[in-house]
Amino acid sequence: MSEIFVDADACPVKAEIIRVAERHGIVAHIVSNSGFRTNANPLIRNVLVSDKFDAADDWIVARAGPGDIVITADIQLADRCLKAGAEVIGNTGKPFTENSIGTALAMRELSSQLRDMGEIRGGGPIFSQADRSRFLNALEAAVQRAKRRN
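User: That's the sequence. What structure does it adopt?
Assistant: Structure tokens below.
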């Protein structure tokens, strides 16, 4: 059976993920290295990892595989999970795919260099209601695909 793995520390759609997992009877691992609110539903597994760099990412990569769904905004984690065979969705509903991950990694590196040079400042765009809606649609579609595979 497919499972959902959530890179939860900065994830703005945790509540939506939990609702979808509960509705479909799918285990969701909410992985974080900081505190979070627990959930009494046995399908929702709150995983607290150490604060070691990439501990949450490493935990997810060690367990996610073909048929699983990973939710993350971390492009490097997305790349690792795609290589493990998981389906990966960003927090805004944009899927990471084998065809798009190379470009995403290159843009991440370019942005990092431009920030280091002082050419760009600040974060990305504000998370919107449209992003939330797009995410819910993408997650629902991924769950439906996973159910058909099983």
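The radius of gyration is 15 Å.
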